[in-house]
Amino acid sequence: MVLDDTAKRIIEQLQQDGRRSYAAIGKAVGLSEAAVRQRVQRLLEGGVVQVVGVTDPMMLGFSRQAMIGIRCSGDLNIVADQISELVGIEYVVITAGSLDLLVEVVAEDDDQLLEILSRIRAVPTVTSTESFLYLKLRKQTYAWGTR
């Protein structure tokens, strides 16, 4: 999907506040409320944007978060898909460098983290993992704009 400047400005408005009204967005980008509604719907249907409530996992009882680096053999896409299916895995990316995948985990406690880590290590082509435990969240934004 090719984005014009207006679509990019709408996305930036939603990144600042996903609850902003179509009328307010329209005023900021120079469109009617109905035109903004249509454009946002196309962006949603096209998978360009997703409007969600971002939570603080600690406030919801998930006291353990970690990024797990994974080294594996074989087809990285297949491994990434298998790991993506595991409960507790929130983010999976294929990377370049010394790690093949980075996986973000949100768990209730250390026992649940250990269980998730065991399931990751049980994937046949996973050769090693390295865990990076989160101690404190200092910054989390989704407002990088559309450049």
Helix and strand layout, with pairings?
Elements: H1 5-16, H2 22-29, H3 33-45, E1 64-72, H4 76-84, E2 89-94, E3 101-107, H5 110-121, E4 126-133
Antiparallel strand pairs: 1-3, 1-4, 2-3
Written description of the protein model:
- The protein is α+β, with helices and mostly antiparallel strands and 147 residues long.
- It has five helices and four strands.
- It has a four-stranded antiparallel sheet with strand order 2-3-1-4, covered by helices on one side.
- A hairpin with a 6-residue loop joins strand 2 and strand 3.
- Helix 2 crosses helix 3.
- The longest helix is centred in the N-terminal third of the chain and has 13 residues.
- It is elongated and about 55 Å long.
- The mean pLDDT is 93.
So how many helices?
5
The average pLDDT value, as a whole number, equals 93
Measured as a percent range, the helix fraction is 25-40%
Order of helices and strands: HHHEHEEHE
List the uncertain runs.
none
